[in-house]
Amino acid sequence: MSLLSIRNLQTEFRGPAGIARAVDGVSFDVNPGEIFGIVGESGCGKSATCRSILRLFAGATARIVGGEVILDGSGDLAAMREADLARVRGRDVAFIFQDPLTALNPTMRIGKQVAEIIRRHRQVSRSAARAAALELLRDVHIPSPERRLDAYPHELSGGLRQRVVIAMALALAPRLIIADEPTTALDVTVQDQILRLLKERRDRNGTSIIFITHDLGVVSQVCDRMAVMYAGRVVETGTVRDVLDRPSHPYTRALLDALPGQGGRDRDLVPIEGSPPGLIAPPPGCRFAPRCPFAGPACTQGMAPPLHPRPGATADHLDACILTEVPHAPA
Ligand SMILES: Nc1ncnc2c1ncn2[C@@H]1O[C@H](COP(=O)(O)OP(=O)(O)OP(=O)(O)O)[C@@H](O)[C@H]1O
User: Fold this and answer.
1) pLDDT at site 330
2) What is its membrane topology (predicted)?
3) CA nearest 34: which of 191, 239, 218, 230?
């Protein structure tokens, strides 16, 4: 039984140029205790998909127009009233943003910020909440946590700030954490520490994590299963080993071919030519077809193809390419 089941999710942004369907029929499942990676080029809808789960949209231009977001035990979040969804946020599902500064109040001491999350959802005394905050700072390996409780965000490094944000996400012991490129703003060593921290939490508490990234190396390092998104749709999904070692969609292959020496491959960097289509009026058929070296006439007609398994592939390894045999790009 999956913890989160997203079915045919559709989210639109209304803008002066028209309505962009940033999420167009996205489906995937996240199992208990699993780290699920979402990858794809900038603008493909990774963040919009994940923000749709908790309806965390900045501004009023975004709207979920179809589909379901079933959280085990809570029902369909997409159909839930705002007041009920507010209770799910933080308690059942927590969000970690790319930039810790946007998640922190610059004028409030760290300890108070963590404690307030606890007090907002639980009936505990001020001192008990402060003690719990200290414990959380310890959990995320913040050095000298007693001293840090009274620090302001600007007094901490970027890495420590992101640890505070993670402590806030862990405060109510959610079953699912959505981490939207949580390490992008950090240097490589700190990145590694944060990844280890999230993994440790999963290993110890069985917390499921959705991890958005554009870094396939990170996916390979921390994720169990993954989805590859392109122009608002999932084009391939499965276990990380299946998708990265046996990619079946030409877009996934192109992404992998663009990596120098990734996963034992020793190929020259092959940039993917062209750019993704606009989302206001995407082309018919497969959205990758205009950039796909293998596309035939059938690829540019009708609806965008749905995900399907291939003969001989693992049951949960699905891709959305209609070609029966997808050759590898020449090495
Ligand atoms: N508030 C908004 N108003 C209008 N369009 C938006 C808004 N937020 C996102 N979009 C559009 O929705 C599409 C998907 O954006 P999204 O941020 O989900 O992509 P992403 O894959 O997470 O990209 P990145 O890796 O750059 O974060 C993009 O075309 C983007 O321009």
Assistant:
1) 46
2) Peripheral membrane protein
3) 239
| Confidence class for position 186, pLDDT limits 50, 70, 90 | confident
Q: Across the chain, which distance is largest between two alpha carbons, in Å?
A: 68
pLDDT band of 111, cuts 50, 70, 90: very high
Nearest CA to ligand 1 atom 26: 42
Q: Is the CB of residue 52 less than 8 Å from the CB of residue 23?
A: yes
Residue 181 neighbours by CB under 8 Å, 6+ apart? 98, 212, 213, 214
CA atoms of 231 and 253, how far apart (whole Å): 16
- Measured in Å, residue 43 CA sits from the centre of ligand 1 at 5
Ligand 1 centroid to residue 149 C-alpha, Å: 35
Ligand 1 interacting residues, C-beta cut-off 6 A: 13, 15, 20, 22, 40, 42-48, 58-59, 61-62, 214, 279
**CA distance linking residue 208 with residue 84, whole number of Å:** 21
| Per-residue pLDDT tens over the stretch 123-133 | 999 999 999 99
Q: Which of 12, 23, 47, 287 to mutate to test the pocket of ligand 1 (most atoms within 8 A of CB)?
A: 47
* Single pTM value for the model: 0.91
Q: What is the Å distance from ligand 1's center to 252 Cα?
A: 20
> Six-digit token pair at 152?
């302001």
DSSP state of 328: P
- For 298-325, write each residue's pLDDT tens digit: 999 999 999 999 988 888 999 999 998 7
Using most ligand atoms within 8 A of CB, pick from 13, 42, 54, 213 the residue to mutate for ligand 1: 13
The pair of three-digit structure tokens given for residue 36, joined into one six-digit string: 């699920």
Q: To 5 degrees, how large is the angle CA 230–CA 212–CA 169?
A: 150
What mean pLDDT is predicted for residues 49-66?
91
Domains of the chain with bracketed CATH: 4-223 (3.40.50.300), 229-319 (no CATH)
Task: Give which of 318, 313, 293, 104 is closest to 228, Cα–Cα.
Answer: 318
